[in-house]
Design goal:
Elements (H helix, E strand, L loop, with lengths): L9 H32 L1 H11 L11 H31 L2 E2 L7 H25 L10 H21 L5 H14 L2 E3 L8 H7 L8 E2 L2 E2 L4 E5 L16 E6 L6 E8 L7 E3 L1 E2 L2 E2 L6 E3 L15
Parallel strand pairs: 2-11, 5-6
Antiparallel strand pairs: 1-3, 3-4, 6-7, 7-8, 9-10
Length: 301
């Protein structure tokens, strides 16, 4: 007969096994927690180092009072200089029958720009009187921005497409240099009195002017005799005219060109270079039998 108290029961064995398993799981949980705590402890340090490495740029400080005043004064001066100059040219063009390029100055555009710039200037002045010159106020940056936009539109777009070729006064100066460099040929070796002779000589470079919307194709010629030098002033000559002054013996000649005093617009004036009236002094040679009436102009260019 066997005593039941000497051997452990099945329930007691299973209970002891469950207790051991729970203790092991608790120890493993504590180890995982400690490991996770170690890993998470390094997170804030890495984020702090990343923030220190990639810090955003600090905003620029507002401009000083002196910079604001100088910038606005220069902007007003630039706007007035450009717009008033173009408006003056446009009014001269509308009043005159001659112009030095095939195009119209957009006078209404410049008038509108001048009006808007004036309103903007009044608004800035109102803010200045009402609130004073505040460095943080972005109103005082409007005039410099407007000046940049107006000048850019005028110089890089309107003027660029308005006169794509050589300026009119430059063409007139080039014509005089051409007449001086190319020898003229006559039957007797003297400068003739006929205007057609000089119009044909300058035919390589037609006048760079339009009259009443039509381009001039030939220079008008006015011949003066018994001269001792070139003309210094004009009377009723129109742009696109060559004034030929002949000496009394017709061995010398001085040729001047009538242009516009403002380059492509304005009143008639003699072609000048740095304030000095330009005059070509051509040479004359006698035509020989078998020679051409004139030398090849391309040989000089």
């Amino acid at each position: 007969m066997t005593d039941s108290t000497d051997s452990p029961s099945t329930d007691e064995v299973q209970s002891s096994e469950n207790t051991a398993d729970s203790s092991q799981s608790d120890a493993a949980g504590q180890g995982d927690a400690s490991q996770n705590g170690t890993e998470t402890s390094g997170g804030p340090e890495s984020e702090t180092s990343a923030e220190e490495t990639f810090q955003p740029l600090a905003p620029l400080p507002p401009p000083t009072r002196r910079v604001l005043i100088i910038g606005n004064v220069l902007a007003i001066a630039a706007i007035l200089w450009d717009l008033l100059d173009r408006l003056t040219d446009g009014l001269h063009q509308n009043d005159s029958a001659f112009r030095g390029f095939d195009g119209q100055i957009p006078t209404p555009f410049y008038a509108v720009c001048l009006g808007l710039a004036g309103l903007l200037g009044l608004f800035v002045l109102y803010r200045l009187i009402r609130f004073g010159l505040n460095r943080e106020d972005k109103t005082f940056r409007l005039l410099p921005i407007a000046a940049v936009l107006i000048l850019s539109a005028d110089w890089f777009f309107i003027r660029a497409f308005e006169q794509p070729g050589m300026p009119a006064d430059a063409v007139a100066k080039l014509t005089l240099r051409f007449l001086e460099a190319r020898p003229m040929v006559s039957e007797d070796g003297l400068f003739p009195k006929e205007p057609k002779f000089y119009a044909d000589a300058a035919g390589q470079f037609p006048p760079p002017y339009w009259k009443n919307g039509e381009k001039l194709t030939r220079w008008n010629i006015r011949v003066l005799e018994d001269c001792t030098t070139s003309v210094s002033q004009i009377s009723m000559d129109e742009p696109g005219t060559l004034i030929v002054c002949l000496s009394s013996d017709r061995t010398k000649a001085w040729i001047s060109a009538v242009t516009l005093d403002r380059g492509s617009v304005g009143a008639p004036a003699l072609a000048q270079d740095n304030g000095t009236v330009l005059a070509a002094e051509p040479r004359i040679i006698q035509k020989k039998k078998g020679d051409d009436a004139a030398m090849n102009p391309a040989a000089f260019f």
